[in-house]
Amino acid sequence: MHDQPPTLFTWEFASDPYPAYAWLREHAPVHRTRLPSGVEAWLVTRYADARQALADQRLSKNPAHHAGPAHAKGRTGIPGERKAELMTHLLNIDPPDHTRLRRLVSKAFTPRRVAEFAPRVQELADGLIDGFAERGTADLIHEFAFPLPIYAICDLLGVPREDQDDFRDWAGMMLHLPGGESPDPQRHGKGPRGGVARSVKKMRGYLAELIHRKREALPAEPAPGEDLISALIRASDHGEHLTENEAAAMAFILLFAGFETTVNLIGNGTYALLTHPEQRDLLQRSLAEGDDGLLETGVEELLRYDGPVELATWRYATGPLTLGGQDIAPGDPVLVVLAAADRDPEKFAGPDVLDLARRDNQHLGYGHGVHYCLGAPLARLEGQTALATLLTRLPDLQLDTDPADLRWRGGLIMRGLRTLPVRFTPGR
Questions:
Q1: Domain limits of the chain?
Q2: pTM here?
Q3: What is the CATH T-level fold of the domain 11-423, as seen in this structure?
Q4: How far apart are the C-alpha atoms of 366 and 174, rounded to whole Å?
Q5: pLDDT tens digits, one per residue of 264-277
């Protein structure tokens, strides 16, 4: 790997991309490559360049700026969102529309609102562990990391409890089939993007119906803790100029962005702790003493060390610009590699070392600039609650497979495990 650029986006790369990213950071920090979809894009791997790109207004989130051939334009973004009229959401738009829509939903993610939600997240974590605690074994992805954020975001949006299992199924279709993976023929038909696109279509149909039902039953004045879909409808009915498509797209992207990231935060974080026993012991002792300080810095470090979002979502140059010494042409797609930036030795001392007590940790796991993750307070709460509950209730939790046998999902943007088999002493 000394002279030639590493091979990217293979199964071997997916299991440990960090050596390849280290090579790119050193030799080709802004690197043009052909993605598995056939689209050509620039990969940005150094921290300073990444931070600049994330905040650079010449890099638009709007796919209309993509200058590639027509057939390539459908290969960026979320499969199916264009057909389902779900394009007008926070990941695809720029200010001032982005500013307006973000302001509408930011009220749902204030520290106070998230703190009020903490007992529900704890109840979900305990209930899920109750489901497998007596068995002594579990797959932590499918039985814990996946359902917890799905049910949490459904509660926040206002999806009725009786409909939440449908949402769980549709989200599962997305999770089993990120771009470039071979589908499970038992469940999902013709191919990866097709499976995701079908679940997006079902979700879109459901959201349209739910928005209609909620609009019919909306009280004149908002109640304290009103659900997010009701708040979006109220905004569209009271002069904030939110169309029904915008409301549906906003609900969709909050669900889409709000569950898979947290699944991977919990999954990757638990895996990192299980494979770093000395760090895990430190955290367990800290929790046993009632000190949450190490839990808080620890979740930030897990986000930096092996975060849930490997590449930030798509950006497109609106004019010529220079980044990391490379000239980017108008319309070129740019992908900021958060996983590479967050292990840049120019920014982080001992970047390949997991240190839960790391203090000066300005990682890019939640992005940077106007698109900084809106749901960061909720993700932190879910990550902290999930890990603390697992380590407290299942104190002798162990990996139940050889790490070499674990498979990572082969998507472009997200980084996460397909399964995480564990064992522990059965009990309540």
A1: 11-423
A2: 0.90
A3: Cytochrome p450 (1.10.630)
A4: 21
A5: 999 999 999 999 99
